[in-house]
Amino acid sequence: MLSPAAFDDSPTRPLAAPRRTTRRRPLALVRAWGPFLIPATLATAAGLIGLAVPVAGPGEQLTRVFTGLTPERILDSAREADAVNAVYYLLMHFWAELAGDDVSMLRLPSAIAMGLGAGLAGELGRRILTPGIGLCAGLMLAVLPAVSRWAQEARPYALAFLCATAATLMLYRTLDQPRWWRWTGYGLLITLTGLLHVTALLVLAGHAYTVFSRWVLSRQPALFWWFPVTVLSLVPPAPLISLGVRQHAALLAWRPHLAWEAARSAPEVLLGSAAAGLLVIGLALAARWPDRALIRELAVLAAVPPLVLIGATFLSGPVWAPQYALPALVPITLCAAAALRGLKLRALLALLAIVALSLPQHRAIREPGAHQRFASGTTITASVPPPERLRSSMLPRSSPVASARTI
């Protein structure tokens, strides 16, 4: 990959290096594939450790109820409750038919998706920064407790995280070399992201800023293809989003409106550990890179999802939950790794420190009752109401889910 320009606000250089006709050496293969494979393997392995130990939480119980229904009944029930997760329930219904509805099998897609998402984060860093920074960022992401926590949750958050991260990577590749098939791939990934979980679409704010930033620097008209592609990609999830907004008040009315507490504990619950979170965020704030425009793009991608959710919590009620802002972890760790550019020993020490500071939380999230507790303070757990509260407050007695037995 070509090095970025030496002056501050230059456009990022092309992401794709010229094709080589000669055979790659082993070191070149490691640099090309290591930033993806190593974090993906580590994150997946961490997610699989103790996968079946925690008892299913309320959200996972609801997933189990929905996946036990027929596709027709899932769609029918979605009109009354949890419409934004209807596509996830359909996917899990077919998965459960193949693998069974054991809790560990229901969690397995999340573990795999979170591992792939960590790998794609490393690949994104390799392409827009350097292979070393991509590997360091992917490893930081893989060892964070929040990644393991939501990799062990039979809910759509990990899959939405994977699609949002893939969409960000595809955007940068498309802006580098605009092609119709790349725009199509980007649009499909945005559609999947919206169908899996609507809050993951907050990455679009960062994408819009990235497109605007590149246009200011290059004035390329081709960049404006982002707008029609994005609008078209939002058409399929639009009905679910509209229905989900109408169900929002009933879904979250049970949660206490503690806006200041949510804002205070946001870094801790987002990254999974107070000490490790402060270290990663501190490094991210110290990010240095010759192309400052790129750092600003990553900063917007990192800041918008949590800030919008916390701001909405102050304005309209309880909206903030750490799993809703998972895509923000990717640019945060990329900025943190960029701060350690060229400092191999310090990067290794930082990774070891993150692991050491995160170990208590890693043990806590693998306790039998971890998924039964709700997100509060330093606890990283599911933020969904008990299924019986959901049924009593949202579902009519004639609904298929209302009469289903929660296991």
TrEMBL record:
Q: Which UniProt keywords apply?
A: Cell membrane, Glycosyltransferase, Membrane, Transferase, Transmembrane, Transmembrane helix
This entry's Gene Ontology molecular function terms read: pentosyltransferase activity
TM region positions = 28-53, 128-147, 154-174, 186-211, 223-245, 265-286, 298-318
Q: Which Pfam families match?
A: PMT_2
- Superkingdom assignment: Bacteria
Cell compartments where the protein resides = Cell membrane
Query: What are the Glycosyltransferase RgtA/B/C/D-like domain coordinates in residue numbering?
Result: 88-223
Q: Which PANTHER family match?
A: MANNOSYLTRANSFERASE YKCB-RELATED, UNDECAPRENYL PHOSPHATE-ALPHA-4-AMINO-4-DEOXY-L-ARABINOSE ARABINOSYL TRANSFERASE
The protein's name is: Mannosyltransferase
Give the species this sequence originates from: Actinoplanes lutulentus
